[in-house]
Amino acid sequence: MFYKIIRPIARFIVWVLNGHLHIHHKNRLPKGNYILVAPHRTWWEPILFALGASPMEFMFMAKIELFKNPVLRFILDHAHAFPVDRKNPGPSALKIPVKGLRKGKLSLIIFPSGTRHSAELKGGVLLISKMSKKPMVPVVYQGPLTFKGLLKRKPLEVNFGDSITIDRKTKLTHENEQILFKQLEDAWNSLDKELDPNFHYVAK
């Protein structure tokens, strides 16, 4: 219920601050729940992705430090967020999203690179996808990378791609992980070019 209440509020805030959110190829989203997988470019991407894929509701990982504030903890808990210690991620970093995905009601937003300043992809997303038997859906954001740019009302572009499914018989060896990561990176590049052939991401 809280998620359904906060979503229109978030949509209104985005409209007031910017007013130019454009969603592309929502028709590519699969039936049922799934894992939205994106390169990490801004802190507001999860909000835009969740708004773009509405009415689907999403879980997302949040750094454990945010849960120390009781007010913020209440909001995060009721917005389907779960804590992850980035320095020492435990089994819960996999068990919680897998369990949530298997129930079939919630999808997941995840950034395999972990941070905006890393290009190295981590295998957790592949394991979550295989264990939950849910497809990965590549998605990209193009638009302002700073809050100042957001306020200048430059367009916010979200582009959804086609699903990538990991066969249950596929073993997640290092070689197979690299093949799957290549699929994701190729999909992101294709989605970026689809929006803007001259796009090149530079971390701020």
TrEMBL record:
Annotated GO MF terms: 1-acylglycerol-3-phosphate O-acyltransferase activity
Pfam families linked to this entry: Acyltransferase
Keywords recorded for this protein, A-Z: Acyltransferase, Transferase
Domain of life: Bacteria
GO BP: phosphatidic acid biosynthetic process
Record domain Phospholipid/glycerol acyltransferase: where: 34-144
Claim: Acyltransferase is one of the keywords in the record: yes
The protein's name: 1-acyl-sn-glycerol-3-phosphate acyltransferase
